[in-house]
Amino acid sequence: MLKSKMSEFDLIAQYFTRPPRHATLGVGDDCALLTPTPGMLQAISTDMLIEGRHFLPDADPAQLGHKCLAVNLSDLAAMGATPVAFTLALSLPQARAAWLQPFAEGLLALADAHQCELIGGDTTKGPLNICITVFGEVPPGLALRRDAAQVGDDIWVSGTLGEARLALAGLRNEIVLDPSTLVAAARHLHAPTPRVRLGLALRGVAHAAIDISDGLSGDLGHILQRSRVGATLDVDALPPGPMLSHQPLDLRRRFTLAGGDDYELCFTAPSEHRKAVLAAAHSADTAVTRIGSIDAAPGLRLMDSAGAALTLQLSSFDHFSSP
Ligand code: ADP
Ligand code: MG
């Protein structure tokens, strides 16, 4: 229940209710009803965004609406799943039209771009906290699972890395960035592009995939652990974001390897599939870069472009051990 001038039900009706498209029953009943596509597996994922933890208290509401759905769609992308629908659980300190209107617009614009329908949720008064659950579909046997990497696979990454971390470093005054650099980098932090089309194009082409939310080295580590393999990365092949590419080598290496908030896909594919990977990337209009290979020896080895071993102090993001 949300006690405010605008009632909870007015708020839901005004901002979050639209005629159902594919759903059999959408917002307004005790449950939504979805008719599954025969023969498909359902892919389901939840991500929560909390003020002060995942975004700053003055975050732009339209960008926040975009981002909280984008990070969820990114999980569907990393599974090779087609987005179908989502629910929105929203805790809000007050019902303000000046916040709700742009939030709903940012959220629903991205939802429409992916034909992913808002089918229900919950609304309550409390600290700002946004929790989305996405529902997608993938044919049996074609999901891009973390446990599917094989020795000899190439490792690839989409887009560029480290730009969101560069923006965060600028916002936190860890480094000094000129204002135009900060504005450009902050777009990657506030409005990530979920790689849904690439994930779909990689069905049957890639073996394993993960989306990079906590930093490449840590997230690739999850593939290695689940697949019981190791990897060697060419650190100088990692594609830095456009603003990061002008920063010193050490920062470039650390932010591309362990930046966080990139929402690019890291995936593995057999080397015979190189042409198919490039064709998939082309069809999805998304750049991809080959950055290393999967080995039998456990652990992650870092090399520079000359093949010399590198030791870098890296920490990927973890809510319970990071500051
Ligand atoms: P209940 O009392 O059964 O939990 P609610 O009163 O919380 O139902 O919600 C009424 C309807 O509005 C339900 O269909 C629910 O899914 C939907 N709903 C509630 N909050 C949201 C929201 N933030 N976005 C979309 N749908 C919502
Ligand atoms: Mg409810």
From TrEMBL:
Residues reported in the UniProt entry to bind Mg(2+) 4: D30, S45, D75
UniProt: Mg(2+) 2 binding residues: D47, D75
Matches recorded under SUPFAM superfamilies: PurM C-terminal domain-like, PurM N-terminal domain-like
Pfam families in alphabetical order: AIRS, AIRS_C
Record-listed ATP binding positions: G121, D122, R146, S213
Record's keyword terms, sorted: ATP-binding, Kinase, Magnesium, Metal-binding, Nucleotide-binding, Thiamine biosynthesis, Transferase
Enzyme class label: transferase
Residue numbers binding Mg(2+) 3: D30, D75, D211
Cited InterPro entries: PurM-like_C_dom, PurM-like_C_sf, PurM-like_N, PurM-like_N_sf, ThiL-like
Note: Reaction mechanism of ThiL seems to utilize a direct, inline transfer of the gamma-phosphate of ATP to TMP rather than a phosphorylated enzyme intermediate.
Protein name: Thiamine-monophosphate kinase
